[in-house]
Design brief:
The complex is a heterodimer. Chain A is built from three helices and two strands; from the N terminus they run H-H-E-E-H. By secondary structure, chain A is mainly alpha-helical. Chain A has one domain (7-84). Chain B has two domains: 3-308 and 377-464, Hydantoin permease (Orthogonal Bundle), CATH 1.10.4160; 314-350, no CATH class. Helices cover 69% and strands 1% of the residues of chain B. Chain B has helices spanning 3-24, 30-35, 42-53, 56-69, 76-100, 105-112, 116-148, 153-203, 208-211, 222-232, 246-262, 264-267, 276-312, 327-334, 367-370, 372-375, 380-418, 424-447, 456-477, 483-505, 533-550, 556-566; strands at 320-321, 338-339, 348-349, 362-363. The chains are: A mainly alpha, B mainly alpha. At the A-B interface, helix 1, helix 2, strand 2 and helix 3 of A face helix 5, helix 10, helix 11 and helix 13 of B.
């Protein structure tokens, strides 16, 4: 169902967008600068297989999480645009 | 067939492929030349972005940087920094610039800040970032040729220039995009095949990412063994050795992340996809393709380091006799990347962290990737593949950078600032000429690398982080930021970063002109010059916001532009 493209709808879109950026940005910070750098020592006390956990986050885990974050963001934004009728028409 | 012959065949075949693609994808309009007609599928663009992004440094040097210079954990700054930037790019930059829908990064800055001065400042920042970066790629091409094909450096560089010239001048962004897709396939295959073999040999696990956490033949974990071995040799533990301080690691990582999101040659790749939605998913795919290499690299780093140590000291206390060193060792000694000196004259090689006792006097970072297939006794075609992969990485990045430079000159300086009346055909011709000039200029700099070439990649990231990123971010997320604020901020950001790098590394990197010395005690809160971009960015933000408060708001039309780029749908 298409809704009128009023400034109110655009307002909602922008608010939701910023909310998701904040949520995903916090996770982004936590897995990289958090788990990979700031809290690496306590996390290294935990051993999973041959990996110290902090080291694993810094050299593997953070990168995998980044990929998930981008696709989650792309997914929620596409759904939001559909819901608010703000999709662009493909040329 | 000898190794050199095999290498000629494989590298020759890859070059032929790039040329065939170039002939099929000739650009006929400026839109095709600058942004490939905006018709690239997001997955294809992701692949091209990955090839564009992963340079000779990523392919050849990064594993060695992690495994040797940064001794393991310290090297994580590159892994997180050069991938984490894509999250910022996907959320904060790429979708909005795609919606803006024009050709270049300075163009957006000029329009958003309603000022030719802002556009010109952005062009200058872009050219400094990209030129410093492209010198490294040209050097990489020359080195790869001279090492693998036994040509001299100049011949190698010249062959590389001819190839890039051909497809970049003819096809512009369109030709570059399709060749980059082919180059990605070559480089990722070349990187992962030796890694899979070395992981199988050491741990029995074919996936290197898992092999890194697996056990060796003697039942101990690979990383534990490496930690112990390095401690015995007097190094720090591999999995915990911090680079500088925690603050320095955080600043370094953040600088690379922000720099990634501000580098124009990466940003313009997102102008080539059809929609805003495609720009977001494309960033995701780019990171998937980049992550294949970036999660393999730490495994290569740890495994090759362990392999080298075990070659030199098979059992504790039992050092390798100089006479008995393997063939690959002798081969790489000839290139100057490996070097030994029998200091205690016992006819054996002692590898140690103590410079007094260490007899492996030269151990170049690049050796880790370059010699990897030989250390693992892999067949000649795998070694030849590594040569083709290194060249693909260098060529694809060089082409992307050259396009960013030439489009800034022909579109932003010529069409938008100096000669607004030229026709589409004339602009297309101008962009081809600018591209040709950029290739020749880069070739010249590759032949006569200025003394500062080594330190410049850090400068490229620092500058992008300190100048372009804040201007782009604030341009999208604030309607209030004014022309005066943005210009002052960009200049302050560049100024502070340059001043910091120069005062520690020398003016224009000339030795002897650094007035504070490149010594940790003089570093600002222990932050090394390479990691200073984040401080430059903070200065930029602070100056921009302060000056904005003192100057009038942007005109109504600019506020409408910002409203418009924030939402994918065309406003009615």
């Amino acid at each position: 169902m298409e809704q009128p493209d009023t400034s109110a709808v655009r307002e909602i879109y922008w608010r939701e967008n910023r909310r998701w950026m904040l949520i995903l940005g916090v996770i982004w910070f936590t897995v990289s600068l958090g788990c990979g750098v700031l809290w690496v020592e306590p996390l290294n006390q935990i051993q999973i297989g041959g990996f110290k956990l902090g080291f694993w986050f810094a050299q593997q885990g953070a990168i995998y999480t980044f990929i998930v974050l981008i696709f989650v963001y792309a997914g929620v934004m596409a759904r939001l645009e559909k819901r608010l009728g703000l999709e662009e028409t493909e040329v | 067939m000898t190794l050199t012959e095999t290498t000629y065949w494989i590298v020759g075949a890859s070059f032929l492929l790039y040329i065939l693609i170039a002939i099929r994808s000739r650009a006929d309009t400026t839109q095709e030349f600058y942004v490939a007609g905006k018709g690239i599928h997001p997955v294809a663009n992701g692949m091209a972005t990955a090839a564009d992004w992963m340079s000779a440094a990523s392919f050849i040097s990064m594993a060695g940087l992690i495994g040797l210079s940064y001794n393991g954990y310290g090297g994580s700054v590159f892994l997180m920094g050069w991938t984490g930037g894509y999250v910022i790019l996907a959320m904060l930059i790429a979708p909005y610039l795609r919606k803006y829908g024009k050709f270049t990064v300075p163009e957006f800055i000029g329009d958003r800040y309603y000022s030719d001065a802002a556009r010109v400042v952005a062009v200058i920042c872009l050219i400094i970032c990209s030129v410093t970066y492209v010198i490294g790629q040209m050097k990489g091409i020359g080195v790869a040729f001279s090492r693998f094909l036994e040509t001299d450096y100049e011949t190698g560089l010249f062959s590389g220039m001819v190839i890039v010239f051909f497809y970049a001048v003819l096809g512009g962004m369109k030709g570059i995009t399709y060749t980059q897709i082919a180059q990605f396939c070559v480089l990722i295959f070349a990187y992962t095949v030796p890694a899979i073999f070395i992981s199988l040999q050491l741990t029995g696990q074919p996936i290197p990412q898992l092999g890194l956490g697996s056990t060796l033949a003697d039942g101990s974990y690979l990383l534990e063994k490496l930690d112990r071995t390095l401690l015995d040799l007097g190094f720090q533990e591999y999995t915990t050795s911090v680079r500088g301080s925690t603050l320095n690691m955080a600043a370094f990582t953040a600088s690379l992340m922000i720099g990634t999101a501000g580098l124009p040659h990466v940003i313009i790749r997102f102008f080539t996809v059809p929609t805003v939605r495609a720009a977001r998913t494309s960033a995701g795919w780019a990171l998937v393709f980049i992550a294949i290499l970036y999660t393999t690299a730490p495994a290569v780093a740890a495994m090759a380091r362990l392999n080298i140590i075990q070659t030199l000291e098979p059992q504790p206390g039992q050092h390798l006799a100089i006479e008995e060193r393997p063939t690959w060792f002798k081969n790489w000694e000839q290139t100057g990347l490996l070097g030994i000196e029998d200091k205690n004259a016992d006819g054996r090689i002692q590898y140690s962290a103590d410079p007094e006792q260490n007899e492996l006097v030269t151990l170049d970072n690049d050796i880790l990737v370059l010699a990897n297939p030989e250390i693992a006794n892999l067949p000649n075609w795998v070694i030849a593949l590594v040569a083709a992969g290194g060249l693909a990485a260098a060529l694809s990045t060089a082409a992307g950078l050259l396009l960013a430079i030439s489009s800034a000159v022909s579109h932003d300086l010529l069409k938008r600032t100096l000669m607004p009346d030229i026709s589409e055909r004339q602009e297309l011709m101008a962009s081809r000429l600018a591209m040709a000039a950029a290739v020749l200029g880069a070739g010249y700099l590759g032949l006569n690398p200025p003394g500062f070439a080594a330190g410049t990649v850090a400068l490229a990231f620092g500058l992008a982080a300190a100048s372009l990123f804040p201007a782009l971010f604030l341009g999208i997320f604030s309607k209030r930021v004014s022309r005066e604020g943005a210009i002052a901020g960009m200049l302050a950001g560049i100024g502070v970063t340059l001043a910091y790098v120069f005062q520690h590394k020398g003016l224009m990197f000339m030795p002897g002109t650094s007035f504070l010395g490149d010594l940790p005690p003089n570093w600002f809160f222990g932050i090394e010059p390479n990691a200073f971009g984040v401080v430059g960015a903070a200065v930029n933000f602070a100056v921009t916001l302060t000056v904005t408060r003192l100057t009038p708001s942007p005109p109504e039309s600019v506020q409408q532009l910002v409203d418009d780029i924030r939402v994918p749908a065309v406003s009615r």
